[in-house]
Design brief:
With 169 residues, the chain is α+β, with helices and mostly antiparallel strands. It has helices spanning 5-24, 129-137, 158-168; strands at residues 45-52, 55-62, 68-75, 80-87, 93-98, 101-106, 108-111, 118-125, 140-142, 149-151. The chain starts with a helix and ends with a helix.
């Protein structure tokens, strides 16, 4: 046993050096830092609330246009949302972020009639943390990585966000 002691000590020292070397290597970042401050409203684009009986839609885009960036639809008091957005070809999820909260929603993809990408639809609960944060900070970002787009309301449209979530439950 005493003859093996130097070999064992050498092995343990090698493991310790290897572990220390590995501990100093930082893995490449796999996520993008969340947006922590509100994006600025974009001229011509806004959040639009439309109520029709027991259904409501909160949409971000150009008013009275097919240029929809994100649509949130619900039935009165249901607590559920139908999300619709345009994504890049091959996308199968809608990534939504607001004030440090981020969630991915698996989506059905159909070819878009408006652009080269796909039209995505997904389901969510109004109680999802990202939507509760949206209610507080009144902006959302959609997409992933560099393709993220922040959607902030102009002052006149901001109150429609809370009215939509009250309507949806």
């Amino acid at each position: 046993m005493t003859a093996m002691r130097p070999v064992l000590l050498l092995l343990l020292a090698g493991v310790a050096v290897s572990a220390a070397a590995c501990a100093t290597i930082k893995p490449a970042a796999t996520t993008v830092a969340p947006l922590t401050s509100a994006p600025a409203p974009i001229e011509g684009y806004d959040w639009f609330l439309h109520e029709d009986g027991d259904e409501a839609r909160l949409a971000y885009g150009l008013e009275e246009s097919d240029d929809l960036r994100l649509g949130l639809d619900c039935r009165r008091g249901a607590g559920r949302l139908a999300l619709s957005a345009v994504g890049e070809a091959g996308a199968h999820e809608i990534v939504v972020e607001s004030g440090g909260e981020s969630q991915r929603f698996p989506a059905l993809a159909e070819p878009s009639e408006v652009n080269d990408g796909v039209f995505l639809t997904a389901q969510a609960r109004t109680s999802a943390p990202v939507f509760q944060q949206f209610r507080r900070v009144r902006w959302l970002a959609v997409g992933a990585g560099a393709a993220r787009q922040g959607y902030a309301p102009h002052p006149a449209a901001a109150s429609g966000i809370e009215r939509f979530f009250v309507f949806c439950g």
